[in-house]
Every structure is written in C-alpha cells, then in structure tokens.
Write a structure and sequence with these properties.
Shape of chain A: rod-shaped
Helix content of chain B: 55-70%
Strand order of the largest sheet of chain B: 1-2-3
Radius of gyration of chain B: 23 Å
Strand content of chain B: under 5%
Number of strands of chain A: 0
Structural class of chain A: mainly alpha
Number of strands of chain B: 3
Order of helices and strands of chain A: HHH
Order of helices and strands of chain B: HHHHHHHHEEEHHHHHHHH
Helix content of chain A: 40-55%
Largest sheet of chain B: 3 strands, antiparallel
Distance between the termini of chain B: 72 Å
Largest interface: A-B, 43 and 52 residues
Number of helices of chain B: 16
Radius of gyration of chain A: 28 Å
Strand content of chain A: under 5%
Oligomer: heterodimer
Number of helices of chain A: 3
Shape of chain B: globular
Largest sheet of chain A: none
C-alpha cells in the first residue's frame, strides 16, 4: 500500500496523463530557486577571480616575473618557505630524488 | 496521436531533431579543440574551461528565459503586435510543457536544437577573446548572446511570424545573420573594449603574429565544426510538412519559415559552398591550412542565408567570395584599427555572415519569404499571392540589425560596464605569466623549453620590464583601463 506520493501512481491511461515529473504545481518555485542559484554562481565566480588574481600578483611580486613567466616556474612554490627562499635569492636546486615537475608522486612500482 | 500516420510523423520529427542535437554537439567539440590549439601553451586550460562552461551556463539560462523569448517576441514587441501570450503556456520555464509530459513530444528536442545554436553563438565569441579575458566576464557575454540577443533576433528574423520576415521580407535560412553576423558583431564589440593581447602590436603599430601552440589541433577543430554543421543545417529544417496549400496535399521538408526546400538541395549547396570557400581560402591564404579551413567555414556561412534555394554553383561562388572577403577584411581591420581577434572569428562569422545576408537579398529577390500574417503589410514588396517578398533592402537592413543593433551594441555596453569595474580583463602580470600559471599549472609539464612561443618570449620580456619598474604608463600604445589600471594602482602602492 502506498502511503504518500509525489506525482503519479499509475500509467494505466496515458492519454489522460500530462506532467510526468514529481511535484507538479511547484514549477515556479523551482525556477525561482534555479535563477537565484545561478545569479549567486556568477557573483561567486567574480569574487573568486578577484582573490585569485590578487594572490597571483602578490606571488609574482615576491618571486619576480622572470620566474613566473618560465613554464612551471612557480609550480614548486607551495609554502611560504619556498617563496622566501626565492626572495633571498637561493637557487632552487633539484635533488636527484625530487620528482620532476609533472611527475606523479606515486612510485611506478609497488613498494 | 490517435492516427498511426500522424503519430509516426510526430515521433519521426521528434527523433529527427534529437539526432541533429547530437550532431551539433560536435560543433562545440570543434570549437573547444580549435581554440585550445590556437592558444599558447600557457593559456591552454583557461581557454578550455571557458568553452566547457558555455554548456551549463547557456543551457540553464536558455531554459529559464531563452526559449520563452523566441515565442514571446516575434512582434517586437510593439512593431507588429505585443508579447505573444501563448508563449507562456509553451515555453515559460514553469510551464508543464517544459518538462516530461505525455501530451508533448517535440518541445524538448526543439528547445535543444535551438540551444545548440545558442552554444554555437557563444563559442564563436569565445575564440576572439582568448588569452586575456576574465572567465567571469566571458560567462556574462555567453549568457547575453546565447540566451538573450541571438534568440531575440531569431524571434524577429528566423520565425515565419517574425516582424523582420513579415515587414521586410528578411530571409536567412541557415543563419548567416541570425547566428554568425550577430556573434561576429558581439565579438567585435568585446575585442574593441578588451584590447589586444600584450605584444600583439609593436610601438609603431606593426602587427606581430602570435602563433597557435598547435596548428594541427586548430585544423582538426575546424573539421569537427564542419561535421557538426551538418546537424546545424538539418536542424534548421522541418523534415515533413504539408506544403500543398490549396492545390492539395504535398509533403516536403521546409526551411525555418515553413517555405519548401529539400534535404537534397541543401546537401548540394552545403558541400558546394564549403568547396567554394576552401578553394578561395587556399588561394588568398597561399595554402595556409588554418585559413584554408577557415575559408571553407566562411564559405558555408556566406551562402547559408540562401542555401535552401540557391543553385549549387551560385552557392559555390558566393562561398568563395565570402571566404576571400573574410580573409582580406580580417587582416585589413587588424592593421588599420589594431584590433586583435585571436582566431579570425569576427571575419569568418561576422563579415562573411553579413555579406551572405546581403547577397541573398539580391539573388533571391522576389521569392516568397513566408506566409503572410493578417494585418501585416510588407514594406518592401509582396509577391502576387500576397506573401512578403525577399528583397535587397530588407536583407541589408536585416544584416545591420543582426550585426550592429543586436550584436555589437549590447555587447559593447556590457563590455564597457565590466571594464569600468575592472572585471573584463586579467591583470597584465597574469597575462604575461600565462592564464594557466597561477591556477592550473603547466599543461605540458614534460616539455620544458621556455622559448616555445616562436620568438614571442622576447617581446613579452620587454613588457615585463615595464611592469617591474612599476610604471603605470602606456603599454602597446594604450592607456590601461579597468583590470589593468587596477593592477597598476596596486603596484604603485
């Protein structure tokens, strides 16, 4: 026995059926919710971009544009210590064990 | 749906448009591949995400208001009548017809076919702006064109009851103006406000070529666009309709204006206009693969306005002329006005589309444009049977409406507004470092050469020298505005 439903409970007479989706009659509310979410999505995107560019400019000022323009030039600058090392002019020396840029950190063979 | 023949016709039409949607998806794939190939390697992922996000943003807005606009505004409103009230029942987003409904089999697939046109329009603009536009700004242009301005022009000029068709005899069967000219006009407006990529023009105005990072990808992308274009053409037709009128039953395919054509005819003309464009593109570009393929696209676009009725040789010649015009105008505008359209979108779609609409007015002069709507009197001539007639003046004015009034002007206003608030263009340091650099990282981590830009790195280093001295001065001969000015102010602190 069905105690409650959200729309149809029978397909016996298809010629009499109109909307197939659940909660018919609430469409206007669905649309209002969708439009508000969309507007919010655009506003969020603009805010995220502003912060993203501010952060990028701050980083480029610290490490210098020459480094930023080199492909992958900032990809190892994950921490403040890394950035400070660049600021004081310490060269970034890659050890033999350090993965190259783009390498997966996982080993190729099971350990 | 009671009678078998009627039911079969409806279900065939439903399936027909459904297939066109799947085919048209390839246009979007093609644009993504082509633009990613055209971008430099430091901007590849930013370019790709721009194309990806056209899909959801234009889709949901086209559901919320784009489809309603098409049915509500064929009269202007205020030109041949008011807002069409029946549009609410059919296409308002809260209508029962805008969802799974046992009493409707065509609305969703017809909506999707138009939606794929919307993606196409937005993607055309996308290519022109690569490597310096902000994502959020592009998203707004995508919605503006994909779900508002182009569908207004479709209501006006791509509907049998549209006021441009009824009053002006406007004819544009496969959307030379309705999609391509308006998208070209929009792209032109945005690139004017956006400005050129750093280093595109030298201090004395000399034009520098910024090469694609992968020419092969750009060409494959264009070939994919060709493939999807077949679906586009099919979607512009009604596959089965009784066009016999008083003379008895006669089933045929029709164009969007419900005037007869045949799939056979448009197949001839699609391929002949493509070939004309390729032949001309090959000559004017001196066998450059990118511009030869772009010439093919321009050829189809130029002939599209009348490809339901042209002779195949007419289609070929018009296609050839459109391709040559697009190529020559692209480089003329670039040199003369220092406008940086990164992929030639304004030329291939905008100029060729505009040209195609104008030419159709002459070549198809006197043909019936659509069945007359009572109380509308055609301004520029009617056929003996009282149908509004296709004519040069109507199509010329129509091309102007598409390119300038609905394409250029709204986009120019929005671009100015976004620029005013610093939301249009990425900061110069970000542009120079690459739009992928701060957020995505290197798209090709195993290729390490920093000189992979065909010698362009030197120009960019010179621009960096300007930045590193914190000079808020001129770069590329243009005063910084919007986002760029904001960055400079920040640097001077």
């Amino acid at each position: 026995m069905i105690l409650a439903g959200t729309g149809l409970d029978s397909f016996t007479n298809p010629a009499d059926i109109t909307a197939l989706y659940p909660f018919p009659g609430w469409e206007a509310l669905f649309v209002v919710v969708g439009v508000l979410l969309l507007i919010g999505w655009h506003i969020r995107q603009m805010r995220v971009e502003n912060k993203e560019y501010d952060d990028a400019l701050e980083l480029y000022e610290k490490v210098g544009m020459e480094r930023a323009m080199h492909f992958g030039g900032i990809s190892h600058l994950d921490t403040d210590e890394d950035i400070e090392a660049v600021q004081v002019g310490e060269p970034h020396v890659r050890s033999e064990d350090e993965p190259r840029e783009g390498d997966d950190s996982r080993p190729l063979t099971p350990s | 749906m009671g009678e078998e023949l009627s039911a079969l016709n409806v279900i065939f039409t439903e399936f027909y448009f459904w297939v066109t949607v799947v085919m048209m998806f390839l246009i979007h794939v093609g644009f993504a591949v082509y633009e990613v190939g055209a971008a430099r390697r430091k901007n590849v992922q930013h370019t790709l995400i721009k194309n990806i996000m056209v899909i959801p943003l234009v889709t949901v807005t086209f559901f919320f208001f784009g489809w309603y606009i098409y049915f509500a505004l064929p009269n202007g409103p205020g030109i041949t009548g008011g807002i069409v009230s029946s549009a609410t029942e059919l296409a308002a987003p809260w209508s029962e017809a805008m969802g799974p409904n046992m009493q409707d089999r065509i609305n969703g697939v017809f909506w999707a076919a138009f939606l794929l046109f919307s993606w196409t329009a937005a993607s055309i603009v996308s290519g022109a702006l690569i490597e310096r536009v902000r994502l959020g700004a592009f998203f707004i242009f995508a919605v503006l064109l994909g779900s508002i301005t182009w569908i207004i022009d479709a209501a006006w000029g791509w509907s049998p009851n549209g006021w441009m068709v009824q009053l002006m005899g406007y004819h544009d069967a496969y959307a030379s103006g309705v999609i391509h000219a308006i998208a070209g006009g929009t792209a032109l407006a945005v690139v004017i406000v956006l400005g050129p990529r750093i280093g595109k023009f030298g201090p004395n105005g000399e034009v520098r070529q910024i090469k694609p990072h992968n020419t092969w990808m750009t060409c494959i992308g264009l070939l994919l666009i060709y493939t999807g274009f077949w679906g586009f053409y099919a979607a512009c037709n009604i596959p089965i309709l009784d066009v016999g009128g008083d003379s008895g039953t006669f089933f045929s395919a029709t164009n969007i204006y419900l005037m007869p054509t045949t799939l056979s005819g448009i197949t001839f003309n699609f391929l002949m206009s493509l070939s004309g464009g390729l032949l001309a593109g090959f000559i004017v570009s001196k066998a450059d693969p990118f511009w030869t393929l772009s010439g093919g696209l321009a050829g189809i676009i130029a002939a599209s306005a009348g490809n339901d009725l042209y002779h195949p040789v007419q289609a070929m010649l018009i296609g050839a002329a459109g391709a040559a015009l697009a190529f020559k105008l692209h480089y003329y505008v670039e040199r003369r006005f220092r406008i940086d359209d990164a992929v030639g979108a304004v030329a291939v779609h905008g100029y060729a589309g505009f040209f195609g609409v104008v030419v159709a007015g002459f070549v198809l002069w006197g043909y019936p444009a659509a069945a007359p709507v009572e109380a509308n009197a055609a301004l520029f001539g009617s056929t003996a049977e009282g149908f509004p007639a296709i004519n040069p003046l109507g199509n010329l004015l129509g091309a102007i409406i598409m390119f300038f009034v609905l394409g250029f002007l709204p986009a120019f206003g929005v671009a100015k507004l976004l620029n005013r608030f610093g939301l249009l263009r990425v900061p110069r340091a970000v542009e120079l470092a690459g739009l992928d650099t701060h957020s995505h990282g290197n798209a090709y981590p195993y290729f390490q050469s920093s000189e992979a830009e065909g010698g362009f790195a030197e120009v960019e280093r010179a621009a960096v020298a300007t930045l590193s001295h914190h000079v808020a001065g001129r770069l590329d001969g243009a005063e910084p505005t919007g986002s760029t000015a904001r960055e400079d102010r920040r640097a001077l602190k």
